[in-house]
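Figure 2 data, in text form.
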Amino acid sequence: MPQLTLTVGPAANGGSCVARYDGRVVFVRHALPGERVQVRVTAERGSHWHADVVEVLDPSPDRIDSLCPIAGADGAGCCDLAFAEPDAARRLKADVVANQLTRLGGYEWTGVAESVGSIEATGWRTRVRLDTGHDGRAGFHRYHSPDLVTTLSCAQVPAGMLDGLDEGRWPAGAQLHVALDDDRQRHVVRTGPRAGRKTAPTQVVEGNYEAVQRVGSRTWQVPVTAFWQAHRDAARVYSGLIAEWAQLSPGQTAWDLYGGAGVFAAVLAQEVGESGKVVTVDTSRGSSRAARAALADLGWVDVVTDSVRRALNSQSRRADVAVLDPPRTGAGREVVDLLADAGVPRVVHIGCEAASFARDVSLYRGHGYTVEDVRVFDSFPLTHHVECVAVLGAR
């Protein structure tokens, strides 16, 4: 692949910046807008190329020494913005979200990517998953590669969270799920590898299969292999925002879709009271078990283990508010259509991928919903990822 000297333009969704060479678009990783860099082309895809920085010739004033010792063009794919000053990285993320909302959502937004809680750019992660190679060593993947970096010093991870896991030898293809819970206890669970259609039994290597997580005065016991917010302060911050934006009153009904362990269901239940109703839906049996246990005292909360689509088709009582926290691919047309057909007047929608979030916003707007507000959170410092939250009302 050729090496080129380019002047880099604005940030694009996905962690690259846009440059041009001989009329061709080049997506450059590990660069900042305005920099002149030497790059190595890593892939040719139709009318555009992908490239990695080999040398920075004219650095941006926002470039710093990498905060992650294992990330970079030839390192792990974990912290792809670790070389950007954190405030500058948040500005870049906000610019990307604004661009996606304009292009894909038909909605003009200006704002900032906000910090989440008091934790700085490093050491914020609650959970991490490591893969193992043919040599049995655990590690982080290189960018879009099956190859692993087996130095376990990613800057997202709190000190001590991965201590000793680089010393063992694990079954090739196994995964290590590691959680550092709210009691500061570490839990390590090994799953896989797969053999035909069978999966090796889950093994608790250290701690317990379930981790203790708290939001406010409520405690959850969540399987280490199940979903919990990656950022230590995210569940608390999002719960507060949802309680504010839902604008619920006692006796009303709320749907908590893609609800995981029911963290948002808890705050919604508090708002609607015993005379109201909350339905929380997730496909994960482990998350649903955690929700039933944590919310057992809230008799007006129904925990449904099913797909959101099937659950919506079975509801007989219309919601006054729907809260959605879908996977990276977004909720999509079918789910948004079902919400609109059900006449849900108010929606709080969370998205952890800017393009998918913007496409979902466009779908709501196509049904006549109006975007009342958008907040963007830097919930994944050192990376290009963000969390976006929109509140939408039916006209």
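Caption note: The mean pLDDT is 95.
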